[in-house]
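Internal tracking record. Fields below are filled automatically when a chain is submitted to the structure queue. Please do not edit lines marked as system-generated. If the sequence contains nonstandard residues, flag them in the REMARKS field before resubmitting.
Queue: standard
Priority: normal
Entity type: single polypeptide chain
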Amino acid sequence: MMPVPDDWNLGGKFIFDMVYNPVETKFIKKGIKDGAVIIRGIDMLVNQAIFSFTIWFNLMPDAACIRKIPLDNI
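SYSTEM-GENERATED OUTPUT FOLLOWS
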């Protein structure tokens, strides 16, 4: 199910999808096809984890390293 009708053009829009499994939902795929700026749920999940880790351990993990972790377990 998509949160917008199929005939909407998302080009030039910013779209966010909180879903991280699957990484590319129908909404994200439509956004890519239409030329939207997209932020995937997995990106939000990773950033939330980074800042939570920072709060708990007073140490900011390297986001680039975390993004390299395979998504096979999701």
